[in-house]
Amino acid sequence: MDARLQVDALIREWRGGDTAARDQLVELLYPELRTIASAQLRRERHVSFSSGDLINDAILRLVKMGRIDIADRAHVIALAARLMRNILIDHARQKGADKRHHYKVELNPDIDGEQRIDLIALETALRRLGVIDMQLAELVEMRYFGGMPLGDIAQVTGLSEATLKRRWRTARAWLQDAVENPIDG
After folding, report:
1. Interval 12-53: pLDDT, tens
2. Is residue 148 part of a domain?
3. Which structural domain range is residue 118 located in?
4. Angle at CA 167, nearest 5°, toward 38 and 133?
5. Could you give the CA distance from residue 164 to residue 141 in angstroms, rounded to a whole number?
6. Is residue 19 part of a domain?
């Protein structure tokens, strides 16, 4: 059985409540999860997580969710990336509360160069964006935090890659403005 069919079969079995299928799915997708975790941790220079720790924490959160409705591999990857992001944000908030400072992350290291953005400010701006346009916020989660290629995001969202490129530019510009000009209060 080829890998894509195997992943699809495991997802169906997991949706039916088979925890062994869930575990097999995680094992199959572990290399992709490691890539995502490593990318997120490279942006976080002050985090005491290894990529394995981050993946394990995300998997634990995934397991605690119980039965969930996942359509395909891209959905699993997007969900895991979101969980990893939440773990890092929780960690940054805890450290920020402990030391009264925030950590900087790059919004898009390939395009924005050395620009650094406060993780807490980015999270606040992303939540504001989600209120205005949830699809844009989800695109940022999948693309930036999940490291998903536009082809996979197109599969998940049903939008064309051209539309996603335009929406990605819009989301980045909006977030940059929101981070640079936060709403106080």
Report:
1. 888 888 888 888 998 999 998 998 888 888 776 666 778 888
2. yes
3. 3-180
4. 95
5. 13
6. yes
